[in-house]
Design a protein that fits this description.
The chain is an all-alpha fold and 394 residues long. Helix 1 packs antiparallel against helix 7 and helix 13 runs antiparallel to helix 14. Helix content is 81%, strand content 2%. It contains 14 helices and three strands.
């Protein structure tokens, strides 16, 4: 069995087994996208209907980031001991049980239950990326990762659309989320013989990685903070400016569609232009898009287009940042850098909802927008400074 950079493939490698592995990983990432984008706004709306203030909704949403922060570095160890199939099965089971219990428990119990739910989703996400990178042939890696990213974004767009159809009341949206998670078990079972295994650890200083590629790695933090704020508060924000719950939920779908349709063009640009410059452009574009919301806050149809643009540019930060890591690092260093990348995304998921919830408590109509503009604008300045320091480099 081949053993490369601490990863080996269990069983014989063939085109058929590789395709099954890729299909399984893509289905898993679809589950991650739909489950995340459906449950984050759903849970926020459920708490809002209970009369929970926005600040406490933000704190509860931030527990999702803490779960991701803890689960990301532990996933490799889980897979090393139990294997891919078992870990995915246990994660799906844990996520489904947590979802099922949420409607029947008091607010304090939502913290451990949400921690379990998001931790389970994070584990599936990390394994999906690990699996698809192991299964993808080198000569088609870009195409396959592009499909993978588009499907993930499609999943993010689909979740809020489901919520717009079902509403946030009753057990129907919970039941749909559980059914979607259970679907992941079918391709995982069929492709388990081709699942990769982790057989050794990689060691690299995280601080050193951050110093080598600060703009690339911090792009993940900015995207995590923005995405969790979008999904956690945009539906509530829409209600504050007079939109119906269904229309507000569709704003999140607009963001997901921007992620899905703009990701591949931005990725193609990342192969042709200076990536630090592209990071500045993405951050400035997202900041400018949010700025336009102030001008068109009463025109709901225009807002869909504005959030489509802002969402796509924000997702571009993740795409370009990850691409930059692949250029600067390889082997065990790349594995460590990717782990830090995911961890920074999780930290962003903690900071974003806390800041957004507090800002909406102060200014329901504009607080969220101010936080997002400060986030994107501040990063654009940082990436611009990094660009000036690296003028002439790829």
């Amino acid at each position: 069995m081949p053993d490369i950079d601490g990863v080996k493939v269990s069983g014989p490698v063939s085109d058929g087994s590789a395709l099954r592995g890729i299909a399984a990983a893509i289905v898993c990432i679809t589950v991650v996208g739909v489950a995340t984008s459906l449950t984050i706004p759903l849970l926020s709306l459920m708490l809002h209907h209970r009369g929970i203030p926005e600040f406490w909704i933000g704190i509860n949403t931030a527990s999702a980031g803490l779960a991701g922060l803890i689960a990301s570095p532990l996933t490799a160890g889980f897979v090393r001991v139990l294997g891919v199939k078992t870990v995915i099965f246990l994660s799906v089971a844990a996520g489904c049980v947590a979802l099922l219990l949420l409607p029947f428990t008091p607010f304090w119990a939502w913290f451990p239950l949400r921690f379990v739910l998001v931790g389970a989703i994070t584990v599936i996400f990390v394994i999906s990326e690990f699996w698809i990178n192991s299964a993808a042939p080198e000569h088609r890696r870009g195409l396959i990762i592009g499909i993978y990213g588009s499907v993930l974004s499609g999943g993010f767009a689909l979740g809020p659309a489901i919520l717009a159809l079902t509403g946030s009341q009753g057990m129907l949206p919970i039941a749909i989320a559980i059914a979607i998670m259970l679907l992941a078990l079918i391709p995982v079972s069929l492709a388990s013989s081709s699942a990769p295994q982790i057989v050794s650890k990689s060691r690299f200083g995280l601080l050193a990685l951050l110093m080598v590629a600060p703009a690339a790695i911090l792009a993940s933090f900015v995207f995590g903070a923005a995405e969790s704020s979008f999904f956690g508060f945009l539906a509530l924000w829409g209600g504050k400016i007079g939109m119906t719950e269904s229309a507000a939920a569709l704003l999140i779908t607009a963001i997901g569609l921007g992620n899905m349709l703009l990701q591949i063009p931005i990725g193609l640009l990342a192969d042709r232009v200076n990536r630090n410059l592209l990071l500045v452009v993405c951050a400035a574009g997202a900041c400018g898009g949010i700025g336009l919301v102030f001008l068109f806050i009463g025109s709901y149809s225009v807002l869909f287009g504005v959030f489509f643009l802002a969402g796509g540019m924000a997702a571009g930060l993740y795409t370009v940042g990850l691409t930059s890591l692949g250029t600067r690092f390889s082997g065990a260093e790349l594995a460590s850098a990717n782990g830090l990348f995911v961890m920074m995304y999780a930290v962003g998921m903690i900071v974003g909802p806390l800041a957004s919830g507090a800002a909406m408590q102060v200014s329901p109509s504009y607080g969220l927008l101010v936080v997002l503009m400060a986030l994107f604008g501040g990063y654009a300045v940082l990436a611009g400074v990094r660009l000036a320091m690296r003028t002439g480099r790829p």
